[in-house]
Amino acid sequence: MNSINLKQVFANIAKKYEQVNHFITFGQDKRWRKTAALMAAKGGGDKWVDVCTGTGEMAVLLDKISPGSTQVYGIDFTKAMLVQARKKNSSVKFIKGSAEDLPFAQSEIDLITVSFAVRNLNLEPEKFKQTLSEFYRVLKKNGRLVLLETSIPDNMLIRKMFFFLAPKVAKVTGHLLTGEKEGYEYLGNSISEFYQGKDLNNILRKTGFSSAICKQLALGSVAIHIGTK
Ligand SMILES: C[S@@+](CC[C@H](N)C(=O)[O-])C[C@H]1O[C@@H](n2cnc3c(N)ncnc32)[C@H](O)[C@@H]1O
Question: Which domains does the chain have, with CATH numbers?
Answer without folding.
Answer: 6-17+33-152+195-228 (3.40.50.150)
